[in-house]
Amino acid sequence: METPLTKNIRPGELPLDLAGYEKAGGYQGLRKALALSPTEVQEAVKQANLRGRGGAGFPTGVKWSVVPMGDGAPRPKYLIANVDEMEPGTFKDRYLVEGNPHQLLEGMIIAAYAIQAEISYVFLRWAYKLAYQRLEKAIGEAYAAGYLGQNILGSGFHLRMHLHTSAGRYICGEESALLNSLEGKRATPRSRPPFPQVSGLWGKPTIVNNTETLCNVPHILANGAEWYKGLSKTNDGGTKLYGVSGKVKRPGLWELPMGTTIREIFEDHAGGMREGLTCRGLIPGGASTDFLLPDQFDVQMDFDTVQKAGSRLGTGTIVVLDDQTCPVGFVLNLQQFFALESCGWCTPCREGLPWVAKLLSALEQGSGSEGDIAILKEQTSGLWLGKTFCALAPGAMEPLQSALKFFGDDFTRHVREQRCPWRS
Ligand SMILES: Cc1cc2nc3c(=O)[nH]c(=O)nc-3n(C[C@H](O)[C@H](O)[C@H](O)COP(=O)(O)O)c2cc1C
Ligand code: SF4
Q1: Which of 175, 198, 236, 393 suits a disulfide with 388, CB 3.0-4.6 Å?
Q2: Would you tell me which CATH number, out of the four given (3.40.190.80, 1.10.10.10, 1.20.1440.230, 3.40.50.10470), belongs to the domain 327-417?
Q3: Residue 49: pLDDT over 80
């Protein structure tokens, strides 16, 4: 099984420096890209069926192709790597940048070439201090070797790269709030249209891509779209970093073919539940995805299949709920995070999420009522897509609505017994 994204990551050791990365085949994808035209690079990524790994699964080549090209295009254009990664349960991008920073830089340079951007930013989560040091060193090496700066490898293409630390809020990862934040403004989302591809950072064409998305790009250019599609078990190209956390035997992160089943990830890689525990369900792709149940474990973890099963692939990092953990407490924990991270820009989310957290907290402590459960159900539609300014609040509603559906008896038991049955 091929693992292009992680094969050069050596856990517990320093990442490859520039010489080591080059020796392992690094920057060959960039050399191939620079021999093609920008639109040919876009086409190669389209053919590869690379879908964005930031959560929504938008086809990467299609996204790039919307950027205005040619002499008349507004300038400068920007390419941004989103390394904000504050989604609870998600730690895949950190693994990639700490373990192999040059891989991200190479993907960024190729992406910038494809859209003819002259300025790029790594937008990094503030807490990722080690990643900061490693990226800073790698960017210095790339400048010194002529992979960044003026006339890259004699191609006539120029690119500057800046490392920017996020202010440390979840909303900064939402691409339009990220742009406001980079401009030094309050990090609130922007209305769309216009989309960032046309009017993004300082009103200029901008592409924001997830870290894992960009790390795939050098391998597509180096080995071709057919090879890349062949790595996957389904229509979405490539491999995927899948993670599992919760009370499993071996929590962790694995690079596997896109479309690997939940069962294989959960049983073969994470080792199943710890002794004495039973799995009641899981959220498949970070905190803002709906629960799936154990009878759905043969679902393939790709964008369309997980959606058909009633949830979303999201970040592909699974969080497991066991039978000794209170589902109300589990969801309360998530809603407290979302309430804290609401950016406060629109009223339904600013007022609604703290209310949801307050009701759940009362239920969990045994002082809730049947009426509270009814209000929670109402909130899942009141804070749904189209009712709030961005996807943060609807994302928060996903685990709540499915918990109310699948674990409804546990909610009513808290009301009936006026206590949390999981507490002694
Ligand atoms: C509240 C919120 C937080 C987000 N946080 C991140 C993040 O930390 N990293 C990320 O790549 N995308 C995040 N996204 C998705 C981005 O808006 C955007 O879709 C993504 O960076 C695009 O990259 P892709 O096309 O490569 O998937 C977030 C979205 C929302 C609504
Ligand atoms: S939904 Fe929440 S996070 Fe998004 S704009 Fe409204 S208040 Fe801000």
Answers
A1: 393
A2: 1.20.1440.230
A3: yes
